[in-house]
Write a structure and sequence with these properties.
The chain is of the alpha+beta class. It contains 25 helices and 15 strands. The longest helix is centred in the N-terminal third of the chain and has 25 residues, at 40-64.
Length: 570
């Protein structure tokens, strides 16, 4: 079948088979106790926050691929009368786009035969090669167009051709109509909301969508990052994992030298997302127990005297943390391409609010972490793990690890070191956060926050639930690449091993020693500011060895579920 002249790449039968391998992430509905307990004003505000999030999803679709919006509308129209179109629409909604990776297959899932996943997504012209991109920038710099290049390489612009050159269009201008509608919904939500701090944040965030001024994003971020005691959650995420074009400038010595000469810091493009939820007070209480000791951990970091850590600025820790029951996920959050985030620590270090001393905020996703395949977990343990370790596998222990991971983003070298690693910065940073969490978990035992039994559960659950990969990852899956680095490092340093029957054993006494060593090695990579050293480190520890191959084979035999389906009720 063709949609808008483009042939669907999979038969109805194939699409049905693919979609049958989906994990449902069910968000909350209006019968949820947390929703019922909201005031009438906050319930009304929530409606407008969801409306704003859905408009942001359209913005994200436009950022992702030039065909997304038209093909989604056409699929929606055809779905009522054609099964293949209906199933293709379901796949589109899972990927939140016409194409994307699923975390298992090495090639992307492309719903239409002639519409492909683009390295530069729609941030850059789809016919722009990396080589041409570099040459255009060199030419522009050589004729003095310094500010134009600075804007092209900034996080918040769409780039288009301008004769033989390129031009950058700020998001505020490019998405003027959509941003105006979003701002209106936020202003109405603020009108109904009865929580002053949250109302104030919404006002700043609305203005950030209306003014072509990065300072407005900074001010909105700063007001969002201090929210701790409110009941509603609304987040505008701006992360830049998707853009594979911008970071390539570090690989061109002539270009990178010119950029350094003119003090231009290349930053990958921000993909927008929106999260709406209700703060869960009980879950938040647990998370805040870990916050109390972040500064102590900062002083335990390797080479701590060689770099700046924002978390040590001032007396008060500039870090808020909440556990959230999810009402809606849109845009970047809804691009379920190999996974879906269980928590997030924002703003990222490249953002102006952090660079100017603002705080950060951790938000944890309750409904995402609850979406587990319990039966398969039991079978994985039986096939791959020594029986004496089975009692230590606990998915709630992974949540504690994630708390440590998100806190870990606030520790270690700041953005000047992270950004210098170019295309490898996200892999190294996610790996660093993982390693910080696992390295410092024994400190929480000393503080009485977790028990030694829980520590063993965290170790076993992270190794089996995270490092036992379903397929060989690639550079666009930084979390999975991080898992593989840690798995191979633990094997090399004999903290884990497999017996003749292929069952995992763990040396619990050796694990802390090895994690400390791994953290020091990782910080050395960031301090080097060398993309080449980052590449060498990643290449060394992302070999797809025989144990990983066997684990992936068992996963396949037990049935992979590589797709996610977000079920919304609002």
């Amino acid at each position: 079948m063709q949609i808008n002249g483009h042939k669907i790449n999979y038969t109805a039968e194939k699409l049905q088979d693919m979609l049958s391998k989906s994990v449902e992430i069910k968000l909350i509905d209006k019968n949820f106790a947390g929703y019922k307990n909201l005031s009438a004003g906050n319930k009304k505000a929530l409606e407008h926050l969801v409306a704003a999030a859905k408009i942001i999803n359209d913005v994200s679709l436009e950022q992702d691929n030039p065909y997304n919006l038209d093909m989604k509308k056409a699929l929606q129209k055809a779905a009522s009368s054609n099964k293949q179109a209906k199933l293709a629409l379901e796949m589109f909604n899972s990927l939140n786009g016409v194409a994307g990776f699923n975390g298992v297959d090495s090639k992307p899932i492309e719903i239409f035969e002639d519409i492909h996943l683009l390295k530069g997504h729609n941030f850059y012209p789809q016919d722009l090669s990396v080589e041409e991109f570099h040459q255009i920038l060199i030419n522009m710099l050589q004729v003095g167009k310094i500010e134009e290049v600075r804007q092209i390489l900034s996080a918040r612009t769409m780039v288009r051709r301008n004769g033989k050159e390129l031009k950058a269009i700020d998001y505020i201008e490019y998405f003027r109509n959509e941003f105006s509608l979003i701002a209106n919904e936020l202003e109405v939500a603020a009108h109904y909301c009865d929580e002053e701090e949250f109302k104030d944040y919404l006002g700043w965030q609305a203005q950030a969508f209306l003014q072509n001024n990065p300072d407005m994003d900074m001010l909105a971020d700063k007001h969002w990052a201090v929210l701790q005691d409110n009941n509603l959650e609304f987040t505008i995420s701006r992360e830049n994992y998707d853009d594979e074009i911008t970071s390539t400038v570090f690989n061109n010595k002539k270009l990178s030298s010119l950029l350094e000469k003119h003090n231009i810091e290349p930053v990958a493009k921000d993909m927008l997302g929106a999260r709406v939820g209700i703060v869960n007070k009980e879950g938040t209480e647990l998370i805040l127990k870990f916050k109390q000791h972040i500064k102590e951990l900062a002083n335990l970091m390797p080479y701590k005297d060689k770099y700046h850590q924002h978390i040590l600025d001032g007396e008060e820790i500039k870090q808020t943390m909440v556990d959230v029951d999810l009402v809606d996920l849109e845009g970047d959050y809804a691009q379920c391409r190999g996974g879906i985030t269980t928590a997030q620590n924002l703003p990222n270090n490249d953002k102006l609010s952090v660079k100017t001393g603002g705080g950060r905020r951790n938000v944890y996703h309750r409904q995402v972490r609850m979406g587990k395949d319990k039966e398969k977990e039991k079978k994985i343990l039986q096939r791959l793990v020594s029986k004496d370790l089975h009692k230590y596998y606990d998915s709630e222990a992974i949540h504690i690890f994630v708390i440590g991971h998100e806190n870990g983003h606030s520790l270690g070298p700041d953005s000047q070191y992270q950004g210098a690693l170019g295309k490898y910065k996200h892999i190294i940073e996610e790996h660093k956060a993982d390693t910080i969490s696992l390295t410092f978990m024994p400190e929480y035992v000393k503080k009485g926050i977790i028990s030694r039994e829980t520590l063993k559960k965290i170790y076993v659950s992270c190794i089996v639930g995270g490092m036992f990969l379903r397929a060989r990852p690639h550079d666009m899956l930084p979390h999975r690449m991080a898992d593989l680095i840690q798995f191979n490092y633990l094997l090399e340093n004999k903290a884990v091993s497999f017996n003749a029957q292929g069952l995992l054993s763990i040396d619990f006494d050796r694990l802390p020693i090895v994690f400390n060593k791994l953290l020091a090695d990782t910080i050395e990579v960031q301090l080097s500011k060398s993309p080449q050293k980052a590449k060498e480190f990643i290449d060394k520890y992302t070999k797809w060895g025989r144990h990983s191959q066997h684990i992936a084979k068992v996963h396949r035999e037990l049935g992979l579920k590589p797709y996610k389906k977000i079920v919304r009720y609002f």
